[in-house]
Amino acid sequence: KSGPESAATMAKKKGSKKQAKGDSKTSMDHLFEKKPRDFRIGRDILPKTNLSRFVKWPKYVRIQRQKAVLKKRLKVPPAINQFTVTIDKNQAVTLFKLMSKYRPETAAEKKERLVKIAEAKAENKEVDTSVKPKIVKYGLNHVTSLIESRKARLVVIAHDVDPIELVLWLPTLCRKMKVPFCIVKGKARLGALVHQKTATAVALTSVDKSDERVLQQFIASVEPMYEEAPRAWGAPSFGIKASHKIRARERELEKERAKRM
Hints:
Layout: H1 3-28, H2 59-73, H3 78-81, H4 89-99, H5 107-122, E1 136-138, H6 140-148, E2 154-158, H7 170-176, E3 181-184, H8 187-193, E4 201-204, H9 209-222, H10 240-260
Parallel strand pairs: 2-3
Antiparallel strand pairs: 1-4, 2-4
């Protein structure tokens, strides 16, 4: 065949292929239609991304975070490190279940009680105020006086008191006066127990006969943890970069030792 004829036939074949492809696309367009998004100015809205790395946090937040990191990096002395030894979850459940029975009265309950006493006195009735209620005692000065007079049966100290110097001496005093004590996680939990925001330490002076056995069992389980004065220093934990550098240094030292051998 001549050149022009062959070129015409080739063009026809290409056209027929294009038509066939076009027909197949149009038949499926209604099912899977592409909708590409355009993120240029004034077009589609960008999806939300985590921008916390770029946020300029308030100064108090930065100080909190820097303080937390610094605490991990420092070698902590035994007197402070002892506050990391807290009772476990099961022991905490038993303790708070027992202490919740002896919660002190709220302001409203106290007001109601005083009103009843005042009404009784107005009617010339005798009011028995000799029996002291069995409640959880709180307030650092109050708890300290109870320990010194050995009236406290059990002392509970929070692990996250700030500044820690407020309760740093309390475990030593308890050991000296032979008063059982334990350290729990969360000053807010102790605070909720006595209707306060937070509480550094609380104490139990007496319980009912029905709860005596539970208290004795709890003291027996806790005493071995805090019997001896702390001697262990808190080991510092390094960041990712520092830990990688330390590992690399150790590998180099091992190689040098192997060469000498």
